[in-house]
Design a protein that fits this description.
By secondary structure, this protein is an alpha+beta fold. Helix content is 28%, strand content 39%. The termini are far apart.
Amino acid sequence: MTMWVFGYGSLLWNPGFAVARREVATLHGYARSFCMSSIHHRGSEEKPGLVLALDAVPGARCAGLALAVEAGAEAQTLDYLRERELISSAYLERNLDVELHSGDIVTAVTYVIDPHHVQYCGGMSLEDQAHIIARAVGGRGPNTEYLYNTASHLSEIGLHDEELDWLARRVRQITS
């Protein structure tokens, strides 16, 4: 059995594990949004940033990448992902069905937001998000880098996220 991981944010451009295959995929029932306050990777406790998370929304769809883990690296990959994604317990690890571009359905390890966690900040206006992202910096670098890399990688694989594209343009205006 192939182990799949669903990437919708930084996993698109920085998976951090051996990927045997990438395929455009859709996850139903979740929306990609900057609904998680970042106090480690893209912000600090004093000045939180924002990172993308999958927020459960009836009827929503999130397009991203299904990443097939290289055979033999499954346990190591899962350990790595848990250390990376579960750093503050704001994400919940789920095995969810994603629909590959080919039409096949695979089960993928997916990290979704816990809407009851203190770092959950869903419903914030795009303008407020832009101002936070423009100024935050964390252990993995500037919040702007995270936004720009995610938006550009989505575009490179033929996927467009109107909110991310708007945020990227607005953050560039704020920071110039």
